[in-house]
User: Fold this.
Amino acid sequence: MIALTIPKIRCGGCVASVEKAIHGVDASAAIKADIEARRVEVATSADRQTLMTALNDAGYPAEAA
Assistant:
């Protein structure tokens, strides 16, 4: 499980964009988003840096939580 803080998450549309970016790296990733905490948890075979790069490219810079 990889936990990431994504300060730009503010709504369901943001979550959808984040999920799309993560699924672009790992289509089978399981994602749990918490909008209030601006945090996502991802069960994936991808590594943290790959996810963070994909999120940054999508306009949602992430930090290790």
About this structure: The first helix runs from residue 12 to 25. The mean pLDDT is 96. The chain has two helices and four strands. Residues 14 and 34 are 11 Å apart (CA to CA).
